[in-house]
Amino acid sequence: MRELTHYIGGEHVRGTSGRFADVFNPATGEVQARVPLADAAEMDRAVAVAAAAQPKWAAVNPQRRARVMMKFVDLLNRDMDKLAEALSREHGKTLPDAAGDVQRGLEVVEYCIGAPELLKGAFTDGAGPGIDMYSMRQALGVCAGITPFNFPAMIPMWMFAPAIACGNAFILKPSERDPSVPLMLAELMEEAGLPKGILQVVNGDKAAVDAIIDHPVIQSIGFVGSTPIAEYIYGRGCSMGKRVQCFGGAKNHMIVMPDADLDLAADALIGAGYGAAGERCMAISVAVPVGEATADALIARLIPRIEKLKVGPYTSGKDVDYGPVVTAAAKANILRLVESGVAEGAKLVVDGRDFSLQGYENGFFVGPHLFDHVTPEMEIYRKEIFGPVLSTVRAASYEEALKLAMDHEYGNGTAIFTRDGDAARDFAARVNVGMIGINVPIPVPLAYHTFGGWKKSAFGDLNQHGPDAFRFYTRTKTVTSRWPSGIKQGSAFNFKPME
Predict the structure, then answer these.
(1) What is the pLDDT of residue 499?
(2) Model-wide pTM > 0.90
(3) Annotated catalytic residue within 143, 166, 246, 281
(4) Which residues pair with 481 in a beta bridge?
């Protein structure tokens, strides 16, 4: 059995807590490795190493720190296929999807190459008589990130790349379900020139999370995961005086107006609803067609597209549409929610409950599901399913559709498909959701903008990546200076009487 490690001080370090978690091959259901689960003592060691290394790294000028990011980008491109294969093996997503996971993280690293510009302060000459004022951005010290299983490459890079570019050291606690790629990323960062101890990977579960929250040296915490855990980390972390940003669950609506290109909308829903087996916080899980005619026409287009989806392991080739979900528990929860939808009266138009893949009967595969006539009080509407399940909620009007998105407790992403510019502008202006797509189904901003939801999808006042990341991972220090006058006149040899 392959035994994974932590990565501390530039070395692979075996776990000492005596606790381990199984890492599965989701396609076969077999255990392929085990990962150590750190205790507080192991976290203390990693933090001590990071704290010792960080001051020297912070003293390196931003341009030289940016050069490490440049080299890291080269290495990510060099090892793209290797990283994607390792990611697919533990997560289950297809190879093209896994490569996209790495690519979207790489793009944030590219943005961080601009650290010298992004870290510049402000200067005011002559703020008062002989007085100048200026501000500077300085690193926090040791930062930490707790990242989810569904993007084991992208989200760690969203956190550690800007944190390290700002001069911090970083403790990464990745998901214990697919930990290999984060370990590989740490190795590549050091190959790119990062000093040992600046990026540490400490595997673990709640014990490691609590050790991060309670550690007095750790100055900030980033988290992506479920809303209950986001609330827990945010509340407890803030009470410890840390800077915290936590991103939680989602229930993303796509409004389809009567004037929309329905073939375009149907294709968008297929990719956004079923890609990565629905295990995306930006997946579209609710279609909201406006008007009965729109709904009927949309459902008619969705059914044949869904029935043609190819579900299989990543090893079956690049034409596989999506793979297994990450664990048996995830599969069981998805199927339980599907059953609840049927019990509560939703119409299961495409039924994937009996899906089985020959040769992979023990894998965690879930067939595609499509519900129609879903109502807001149903559990499948209220909860994040995180699986290949699309719910259709019919709206009689644009205002009713808008209200659905606005009244839901989650506010991560949403989209509208329409040819009407006025409707699109009104929707973007009024909807209380953080990321909006107009004829774009998964509105994930590019690296030089910021990523973040509203309502119970996000906790904290700054978003991920983009300019907000450089604000989050630095403190602003403002200096007011005045120099005594007269020195420039040179020496005086006469006796100056008192005035």
Answers:
(1) 47
(2) yes
(3) 281
(4) 132
